[in-house]
Amino acid sequence: MSFADGEPWPRNPETFDYGFPKPDPEPIGGCPTCADLVARRARCRKVNNRSGATDMNVLCRKHQDEEHITPEQRARTVEL
Ligand SMILES: [Zn+2]
Asked: Near ion ligand 1, which residues have CB within 5 Å?
C-alpha cells in the first residue's frame, strides 16, 4: 500500500521527514546579530549544552522573524 506521493505505508521512520526537529536557522547576509547567535549556538554545542543551543535557535528565529521579514511576508502574517 502507498500514498499518492509514492511513499510506502506505513511510513519508514528512518527515512520519513516529519518536519521536526526543524533545521538550524542560518545567518542572513552580514547581519552581526545572526552571526553572534550562530556562534553562541556553536559554543553551546561544543560543551554539550543542547538546551542552550536550542535557546540560540529560538532567539535566532525570533530575530529573523522581526528583522529580516520582507514587507510582503509581513502583510501575510497573522497576529495571534
Ligand atoms: Zn539577523
From this structure: 31, 33-34
